[in-house]
Amino acid sequence: MIEFVLDGRSKVNTYVQLVQQVKQALRVGLLVPGDRLPKVRDVAQSLAINPNTVLKAYRELEIEGLAEGRPGVGTFVTGTLAGDSLANQADLRTELLGWLRKAQAAGLSDEDVTALVDTTIRAARQADALQEEPA
Amino acid sequence: MRGQEMEHVLEAEGLGKRYGARWALRDCALRLPTGRIAALVGPNGSGKTTLLHLAVGLLRPDAGAVRVFGETPYENTTALADIGFVAQNTPVYRDFTADELVRMGGKVNRRWDATLARTRLAQAGIPPHTPAGKLSGGQRAQVALALALAKRPRLLLLDEPVASLDPLARREFLQSLMGSVAESGTTVLLSSHILADLERSCDFLVVLQAGQVHLTGAVEDIVAAHQQLVGPRHHGEPIDGVATVVRARHTDRQSTLVVRTDGPVTDPAWTVHELSLEDLILAYLAGSDTQSNHEAWGVAA
């Protein structure tokens, strides 16, 4: 069983934070298929959050095929994220290191790099969103 | 899971209440969907208590109507069995102990879950045989909540339940409330002027200001539809993607706008920032304030 925590200063939606924590636990193998997720009631009470938020997070995990709700029993882990993505991360990290050295050589400070990454992610997401629903 | 039998548990249409010449609540339109935890927000004197008292039939409307489960509570008291109400400052009979209050509740209510109340009180660490008057404010609030929940209400109305509590007691109260509601599926309407806790606990919002509903809807939709824009001095010309300007602040060359959007704001002159629920509510409350002050003083805003 895992215990959820909330980052009070984070701007990330509460239900997204819960989803991310389950995914993180799946990535590092803290949760495996068959494990039960904490009861909605218990999460709502311990974090003093709206039970609908917990339900929404669990529904999201169901949609992504990572969990399954069994009426009257609870929500159980059915998928896994361990393995592939960890290996991918190692490759990506190596590439990123190479890119970071290039950025350094080009005179970018750490802050410049972070800003560049942030704005690029945002621009890419915006472009994706525009493609999905043309105005 | 959470109740689905009726779409809206509480509906108000043109609802108004007058004290003498002053309208405490005016032309109030509101629909609270089933299964929500709704926050009723507004400064002191904005009509929150009046609205709640109308909903539990303690007051008779002077205009319009309020319906709870399709009934008008002032005329038809059968609806009251399904409503739990915790009044401001969580009053309980101070000479009675929590245990006595639970037993008393069983005598005056048709539906009464004493086990639920005792379980709640035990979890909250309330001593059973201490007179309520000798309990702390936080403990008394827990007693009032446990008693309201023992009715197994389908709608729970709470008037400023956490206003007078210290931060720890406030957190404990909200934990109890969220845990109970998760179990029972009760729809909740709670008034508060403490905005900080609301974003976590509430998924529906009603903003009252000077007796009128300024904003209402699902929190998720409201947050998604508002943004803060920072850009060059704005003189009221339309901006692509902006439906209405909620609040505008200006320096001689820069403007900061809180806006309701109807599409993406893509004009590169404007930097777009996300708004927290708290900032958004404050923008609505401050926005209308400035306007009325300027009118009252006869100067341009």
Description:
- Chain A: This is GntR family transcriptional regulator.
- Chain A: InterPro entries: Tscrpt_reg_HTH_GntR (IPR000524), WH-like_DNA-bd_sf (IPR036388), WH_DNA-bd_sf (IPR036390).
- Chain A: Residues 12-80 form the HTH gntR-type domain.
- The complex is a heterodimer of chains A (135) and B (301).
- With 135 residues, chain A is mainly α.
- Chain A has 2 domains: 14-77, Winged helix-like DNA-binding domain superfamily/Winged helix DNA-binding domain (Arc Repressor Mutant, subunit A); 84-132.
- Chain A is built from 5 helices and 2 strands, in the order H-H-H-E-E-H-H.
- Chain A has helices at residues 14-27, 40-47, 51-63, 84-105, 110-132; strands at 67-70, 74-77.
- In chain A, strands 1-2 form a two-stranded antiparallel sheet.
- In chain A, helix 1 crosses helix 3 (51-63) and helix 2 (40-47) crosses helix 3.
- The model of chain A has no long low-confidence stretch (mean pLDDT 89).
- By secondary structure, chain B is of the alpha/beta class.
- Chain B has 2 domains: 8-217, Rossmann fold (3-Layer(aba) Sandwich), CATH 3.40.50.300; 225-297, no CATH class.
- In chain B, the strands form 3 sheets. In chain B, strands 5-6-7-3-8-9 form a 6-stranded mixed β-sheet, with helices on both faces.
- In chain B, strand 11 (242-250) and strand 12 form a beta hairpin.
- Chain B is elongated.
- Chain A binds chain B through residues 6, 11, 14, 40-42, 44-55, 126, 129-130, 135, and chain B through 1-2, 35-37, 171, 174-176, 178-179, 181-183, 197, 199-203, 263-264, 274, 276.
